[in-house]
Design goal:
About 55% of the residues lie in helices and about 15% in strands. The chain has about 450 residues and is α+β, with helices and mostly antiparallel strands. A hairpin with a 5-residue loop joins strand 1 (about 85-90) and strand 2.
């Protein structure tokens, strides 16, 4: 059985709905009982006081007229007396019980009315004696009135808790008013559990499966309110984006791995085809003892091949002469390779930037020119480099075939445009902005802009 945590939504809903209603019911129950007690006492006390005052006046008149006191008491008390419930007594001024009707065997009236008889003083009134004096008879109301002509006192004792009225019965059943509200609260609680708590729990489980790599976990509807269903749809869309991004990343990593292997193969091939073959030829000529007349030319060829290889791996000109000279050399060599005019224009006064920034600009231009060579089918290429106050911008434009850009840049990898993904990644690594604009049949433009955050170093310093 799952134990509810104190922060769980189910427990907090229970505490917010059921607990207040339960406390309200308990408070109302105690209040209604106290109201019942007070109202019952007041009603019985007022009624009994009027009764004994009337009986005392009648008895006083009839006894004064010469009628036997016992007969008068019997006539008046007989209809009212109920054994165990209502009793009437007459005491003289010595506290001696003279007459009694409806005496309860559980009550010692001499002791029970002692406080009343002691404090009587010739006046009528009501007393509520301590239940302990009643020897288990329950709460009582005692009304008393004097009989002046004889110096007696008439006492009426009634167990008021046994008296019933519509008003007082209503106070007893007042807590029942809360039953419909409690049932309504339970219905609301069940509805909330079914429409909010349980769908959120299913959604939580689905997100756990998503975290474990199950990207389809959010496809199954969890139900619930419109807000929860909308939340699930948004999360499912995010999960699909994550799945696509992961697939693109894997494809990109695979492309990088293949690129590294292809680069290694190219380097190995170039070393084998040119420098290594020249060195082997020099070795054989030396071992044969033949004079090598063309030895300087062979060695110079090896040096030139190795330098070209090094330039491909790391543009030395970029470090020595700066970005402008490196790009000028790059466009010149590319023009020779693709046999197309490659224009290069520089605007503004050149300044130097950190090596990683210049290298990123160079690699972006290099990747863009390589894509033009492989895919564009262009007849004209232009590279524009602009130095301005606090800004370095570059734009590479061709009039080639172009292509359709996906709505999301992340989808470039899915379309196999790994070189373009690499351009965006290089720009992001140095905090630059890179944009790709292309239209089928109208060419492509790759632009890159870098905001200079530190004072640039003038070129040549």
């Amino acid at each position: 059985m799952k134990i509810l945590h104190w922060r769980s939504l189910s427990l907090q809903i229970i505490l917010a709905i059921l607990l207040p209603l339960t406390l309200m019911a308990i408070i109302l129950s105690f209040y209604s009982q106290n109201l019942h007690h007070t109202a019952m006492q007041k009603m019985v006390a007022d009624r009994n006081l009027r009764t004994v005052e009337l009986m005392a006046r009648v008895m006083d008149g009839r006894v004064s007229a010469g009628e036997p006191a016992d007969q008068v008491f019997t006539d008046l008390a007989g209809p009212l007396a109920q054994p165990g419930l209502v009793s009437l007594q007459v005491y003289d001024n010595t506290h001696t019980l003279l007459f009694e009707a409806g005496r309860s065997p559980l009550v010692d009236h001499t002791v029970y009315h002692e406080s009343v008889l002691t404090g009587l003083g010739g006046s009528s009134g009501v007393a509520f004696p301590d239940d302990g004096h009643a020897h288990g008879s329950g709460s009582h109301v005692i009304a008393y009135a004097p009989i002046p002509s004889e110096g007696w006192v008439l006492v009426m004792d009634e167990a008021w808790e046994d008296v019933s009225s519509t008003e007082l019965a209503a106070t007893q059943t007042a807590p029942l008013i809360l039953i419909p509200f409690i049932l309504l609260a339970l219905a609301v609680l069940i509805l909330v559990l079914r429409m909010v708590v349980m769908p959120l729990q299913r959604l939580e489980k689905a997100t756990q499966l998503l975290g474990a790599g199950d990207y389809s976990a959010l496809d199954k509807p969890v139900g619930g309110t419109d807000e929860i269903r909308s939340l699930q749809q948004r999360m499912a869309a995010m999960a699909e984006n994550l799945r696509q991004a992961r697939q693109n990343l894997l494809s990109y990593l695979g492309s990088i791995t293949r690129g590294v292997e292809e680069e290694r193969l190219r380097i190995a091939r170039e070393l084998h085809d040119q420098p290594l073959q020249s060195l082997i030829a020099l070795k054989h000529q030396s071992q044969a003892g033949n004079p090598v007349h063309d030895q300087p030319q062979l060695l110079q060829g090896v040096i030139d091949d190795l330098r070209a290889l090094v330039r491909g791996l790391r543009p030395v000109m970029l470090e020595d002469l700066g970005l402008t000279a490196a790009l000028e050399s790059l466009t010149g060599s590319t023009q020779k390779e693709i046999h197309l005019p490659v224009g290069f224009t520089v605007q503004g006064e050149e300044f130097r930037l950190p090596s990683e920034v210049e290298l990123s600009f160079f690699r972006v231009a290099q990747e863009g020119l390589m894509n033009i060579k492989k895919h564009a089918g262009a007849t004209k290429v232009d590279l524009l480099l602009t130095y301005s106050s606090g800004m370095l911008e570059m734009a590479l434009t061709d009039d080639g075939s172009g292509f359709s850009l996906p709505e999301k840049v992340d989808s470039l990898a899915a379309g196999g445009h790994f070189g373009l993904v690499g351009i965006l990644e290089r720009a992001a690594l140095i905090g630059a902005e890179a944009h790709i604009q292309s239209t089928p049949g109208q060419g492509t433009t790759i632009s890159m802009r870098y905001l200079v955050r530190t004072p640039p170093v003038p070129a040549g310093v």
